[in-house]
Amino acid sequence: MQQLSVSRLFDGEQWFDNVSVNIDNCSVHSVVPAVGNIQSGMLVPGFIDVQVNGGGGALFNAIPNLQSLRTMLRAHAQFGTTAMLPTVITDNVAVMQQAADAIATAIAAQEPGIIGVHFEGPHLSVAKKGVHSEHYIRPLSAAELAIYARTDLGVKLVTVAPENVSPAQISQLVALNVIVCLGHSNADAATVQAALAAGASGFTHLYNAMSPLTSREPGMVGVALSDPNSWCGIILDGHHLHPVAAKVALAAKPQGKLMLVTDAMSPVGTNDTEFDFFSGKVVRDGSKLTNEAGSLAGSVLDMAGAVQYAVQQLDVSPAEALRMASLYPAQFLSRSNAGRIVVGAPADFVFINDNWQVLACWINGQPIYNAL
After folding, report:
1. Catalytic annotation on 302?
2. 282-323 pLDDT, tens per residue?
3. What does the alpha-carbon distance between residue 360 and residue 372 come to, in Å, rounded to a whole number?
4. Taking the chain, what is the end-to-end CA distance rounded to the nearest angstrom?
5. Where are the alpha helices (DSSP H) in the chain?
6. I want to staple 106 with a disulfide (CB 3.0 to 4.6 A). Which of 24, 111, 142, 364 is the partner?
7. How many CB atoms lie within 10 A of CB 154?
């Protein structure tokens, strides 16, 4: 039995002072009044990031193998991520297949922190492609469907543009246990609503690369904000959306339906200032990534930084910001008991100080990062 004694604990719902968490067989055995040496800091549920393109110098599209997954996880664990969906952006079928094989290998080996895969594209809108390669944007075909139908990939998430993927196809994906998100789309509100009715349940990086809210055509943004049942990922890096826009989303969506994502690229956890991206380059300027045309190209955001931004810039309560990083993504992914520190839950924890700096991180009770 392993024991962690801390001065503060957030269990996903409420705060406790001076408690000990006992860990047995990768899960929480008990939470009891503290005994022994008490570490000063906050023990909180591990962060769950559903959109991670890279980290530690590895970009999953560029080298879609198991080593890249391990490198990405180690980089993001420094910032509290204990579970992630490595993300494959729009690319050819061969890259998608290689990525799927790497994910399957990781899932079979119970690789720490790798819980599934996010295919962000290739069935997107050219008009809202962002930095995705127009060359690879295409309709859904049998080749991609065969990948999405696999049962060895853990959690499967696919982002589609609903003007290019029909309600019938969305229903087909949902029947294959795929979580369908909407994004990179110029669809009108009626098309978006039809996609939700067909089973789509989320929106990828709210506001970014989607048709805007206007007075007479609500667009994808309007539907996303007004729909009470769908989840929205938001990138709180200070570049992808204005703080007022973030506050609008917080006010509009029911509690529990906004979740923090990073959309992180390979420089996270490194000092890299540029990297190759398909046929071009992406350059880092402080906390901002842009391609050669000046368009945002993912982020160097980490989950601890996103939580800190929510608290300090948006006046979100620490408890709610932490839920946006852990409990709500877990609920979106139907991960039972994840995002909590309760008896029977996975022993996935982050230990942070009052400045939101990560001091240690555990996955299934095993230390994955330790700066204590």
Report:
1. no
2. 999 999 999 988 899 999 999 999 999 999 999 999 999 999
3. 7
4. 21
5. 66-77, 93-108, 142-148, 167-175, 189-198, 219-226, 243-252, 303-314, 318-325, 327-332
6. 111
7. 18
